[in-house]
Amino acid sequence: MNESMWRNPIIRANIEKLRNLGVRFVEPVIEEGKAKLAPNQEIVDSVIDLLSPRDMIGLSVLITSGPTHEYIDATKYITTPSSGLTGYHFAREAMLGGVPGLH
Predict the structure, then answer these.
(1) pLDDT of residue 102
(2) Do 38 and 61 sit in the same domain of this protein?
(3) Which residues contact 58 (CB under 8 A, 6 or more apart)?
(4) Are the C-beta atoms of residues 5 and 36 closer than 8 Å to each other?
(5) Which of 1, 33, 35, 70 is deepest in the core (most CB within 10 A)?
(6) Is the same domain home to 42 and 86?
(7) Which of 80-88's residues contact partners 24+ apart within 8 Å by CB, and which partners?
(8) Tens digits of per-residue pLDDT, 48-94?
C-alpha cells in the first residue's frame, strides 16, 4: 500500500483497536514511499513466537556462546572458531518457552 495510506490516522486507529482485541500485526517495511510486506523470516519468526508453548516459565537459564579457548600452558591454547550461532538458537528457544529476561 502507499505509505500515506499506512500512516493515515483512521487506519492507525483501526489497527490499534484490533491490537486491543488481541490481534497481532507484523509491521510493514517502508521503502520507496510504500508500505511493503515484511521480510519472510520476520513473518515466520512472529508466527513461531505466537504458537510456541510457554513451557519454560519460571525457569532460569544460563547460556554461554562463542569461541572456546583451552589453555595448554601459559602461552599456548587450543581454540574453536565458533560464531555463537548455536547459543543464539538456544537462547531464542528459551525466550520462546517463556524464560524472562532474554531479548
Answers:
(1) 59
(2) no
(3) 98
(4) no
(5) 35
(6) no
(7) 87/63
(8) 888 888 888 888 888 888 888 899 999 999 998 888 899 988 988 88
Same domain, 9 and 35: yes
Domain shared by 60 and 72, yes or no: yes
Q: Grid coordinates 510486506 are at which residue?
A: 37
pLDDT band at 103 (very low <50, low <70, confident <90, very high): low
Question: How far is the C-alpha of 5 from the C-alpha of 8, rounded, in Å?
Answer: 5
- Which residues form the domain of 35? 1-51
DSSP 53: -
Distance between CA atoms of residues 51 and 33, nearest Å: 33
Same domain, residue pair 4 and 40: yes
Query: Is 96 found in the same domain as 75?
Result: yes
The position carrying cell 516459565 is: 57
Nine-digit cell at 48? Answer: 513461531
Number of domains into which the chain is organized: 2
